[in-house]
Design goal:
The complex is a heterodimer of chains A (238) and B (110). By secondary structure, chain A is mainly alpha-helical. Chain A has 13 helices and no strands. By secondary structure, chain B is an all-alpha fold. Classes of the chains: A mainly alpha (238), B mainly alpha (110).
Chain lengths: 238, 110
């Protein structure tokens, strides 16, 4: 009866993933609107949103595209935003690494903030789950979001063409990003990483090709990792 | 705003599609059950939280819409969005309060 229990875990995942609709739909709409504003055609927007399938990186690429950044820097910067997906992939590997290759290849595409957040909590809470049950839960958690994300992008792209210039949308993107950063400040090390990155990005703004962004990103990462180490050592000494 | 040509846009889309998939696949697909070095995971944890603020900070301080002049409505909107996000941990609440600040001040100061 392995298939029956896997099925029930699919629906458990589906239920846990459903609240994220309220994040995915507005973001999808926004992405559709911004992509249209940035001059992408409907086909380009839809190809972008369904193949890359990662909100923050998509927004970052659009912003840099509007700043006339060289193509290579756009790709590297947006992929840097997506490096956390590699961390999710690494963190899920002990739980799903034993699944068949085709399932893992499929799961890789579906690795997003929401499916990771739901699954890691469930897998840690129920360590006795079988690999098929875990896989069913993981796929279930992202099932309500994926089609709605793509559909919302389509709606945004169609509606976005009709939004007048006077709406000051130039600043909607920075606000969206800032809003995403707030909830990321989970520990002191996260705050250190962000502050160092901000300081370095402002100091390196004169460097051509937006290379300052990559320098600031690396500086922030190193600062965050070092802050975490220092805090850990202090805790050990006590 | 300058329009990017289709070749550039498609290069970015395809590059990001392949790159993002590779990032997601690398561990779950290739590493399998083997453990990973802690120093690598420690740096990966801080990538998004470093690169996103670095992307926005110059846009907030020198906005493109005002030709690089620091601008009170935009700076205030940025501060509100960040503070509401940190306190509420709610992305949508932060977006709406930031947008309300921007439009409120643009209206009041015009």
């Amino acid at each position: 009866m392995a298939s029956a229990t896997s099925k029930s875990y699919f629906w458990k995942g589906f239920r846990d993933g459903t609240p994220f609709i309220f994040i995915a739909v507005p973001f999808g709409l926004l992405f559709g609107v911004f992509a249209t504003e940035a001059g992408l055609t409907l086909v380009q927007t839809m190809a972008f949103t369904s193949t890359v399938f990662a909100g923050a990186a998509q927004f970052a690429a659009l912003q840099l595209l509007q700043d006339n950044t060289p193509t290579a820097i756009i790709i590297i910067s947006a992929l840097a935003v997506n490096l956390r997906m590699a961390m999710y992939s690494a963190s899920l590997t002990p739980y799903l690494g034993a699944a068949p290759m085709w399932q893992r290849a499929f799961a890789a595409y579906l690795t997003v903030d929401q499916s990771y957040a739901c699954s890691i909590v469930r897998f840690e809470k129920e360590p006795d789950l079988s690999v098929p049950q875990r896989m069913a839960y993981f796929v279930g958690s992202v099932t309500p979001i994926t089609p709605l994300w793509i559909f919302a992008t389509y709606l945004g792209a169609v509606l976005g063409a009709q939004i007048p210039e006077s709406w000051a949308l130039d600043f909607a993107l920075p606000i969206t990003f800032l809003a995403m950063i707030g909830p990321m400040m989970r520990t002191f090390a996260h705050v250190v990483a962000a502050l160092v990155a901000i300081a370095v990005s402002l100091l390196t703004v004169v460097i051509p090709f937006n290379l300052g962004l990559l320098i600031a990103g690396c500086a922030g990462m190193i600062a965050g990792a070092q802050a975490e180490l220092i805090l850990e050592r202090r805790r050990m000494q006590r | 705003m300058t329009q990017a040509d289709p070749v550039t846009i498609w290069t970015i889309i395809i590059g990001l599609a392949i790159g993002s998939y590779a990032l997601r696949f690398v561990f779950i697909g290739l590493v399998g059950d083997r453990p990973m070095p802690p120093w690598l995971l420690r740096h990966l944890r801080y990538t998004a939280v470093a690169i996103l603020p670095a992307l926005i900070a110059p846009l907030v301080v020198w906005p493109s819409a005002t030709e690089g002049q620091p601008d009170l409505p935009r700076m205030s909107a940025a501060a509100v969005a960040l503070v509401v996000g940190v306190i509420s941990k709610n992305v949508l609440a932060a977006i709406f309060s930031g947008a309300a600040t921007l439009y409120g001040l643009l209206y009041l100061l015009s």
